[in-house]
Design brief:
- β3 and β4 form a beta hairpin.
- α3 runs antiparallel to α4.
- This protein has a five-stranded mixed β-barrel with strand order 2-3-4-6-5.
- 32% of the residues lie in helices and 32% in strands.
- By secondary structure, the protein is α/β, with parallel strands linked by helices.
């Protein structure tokens, strides 16, 4: 059962990984109100209790297993021990991640974020699309409608009342030797 939950989380993370809609990014790692965690956090530690880190600036360390080839704005940090993974978004001083980072151990400073997708979230998204009306690009509207329908399907298939995604808005990083 744990492997099914883990697989579902990995698939959910991959679904959101290269999706251009980043969700609720109401805070940034530059926000001085965010609590800073002084110790280095490993991917396993973060994913063991991600809610404990939401809204906090951390230094996250892990193995880069994927860099988004389209924009370079996202990468996946993975634990070598457990294969748990977290998505990192390029923000702050980071314009993009280079593909050459794949296979490297890195430490990324950033703000831990959380997005909850439930029926209320999807209904609000649909309402926003409807209020855009004629100003909204038709092809973009179709794409968003498809994303909403896909999320509704995933929500129904999960048997849960919400899908939760965690990621880090990375502001700076360096390779670890």
């Amino acid at each position: 059962m744990k492997s099914i939950k883990f697989l579902f989380f990995v698939l959910l993370s991959l679904f959101f990984a290269c999706n251009e809609k980043s969700g609720n990014n109401s805070a940034s790692a530059e926000n001085t109100d965010a609590e800073v965690v002084e110790t280095v956090v490993l991917v396993d530690d973060l994913m063991q209790d991600p809610d404990a880190y939401v809204g906090k600036v951390i230094e996250l360390e892990g193995l880069v297993t994927h860099v988004c080839k389209h924009s370079g704005k996202r990468l996946h940090l993975t634990s070598a021990a457990t294969n748990k993974m977290v998505r990192v978004e390029a923000t702050g001083e980071i314009n993009q991640f280079e593909r050459e980072l794949e296979g490297s151990d890195v430490r990324i400073k950033g703000l831990v974020q959380k997005q909850v997708i439930d029926e209320d979230y999807l209904a609000k998204w649909e309402n926003e699309m409807a209020t855009k009306g004629e100003d909204h690009d038709h092809s973009e509207g179709e794409e968003e409608s498809e994303q909403i329908n896909n999320m509704r399907k995933r929500l129904a298939e999960s048997g849960q009342d919400q899908l939760v995604s965690y990621w880090v808005d990375g502001t700076s990083f360096f390779e670890v030797n």
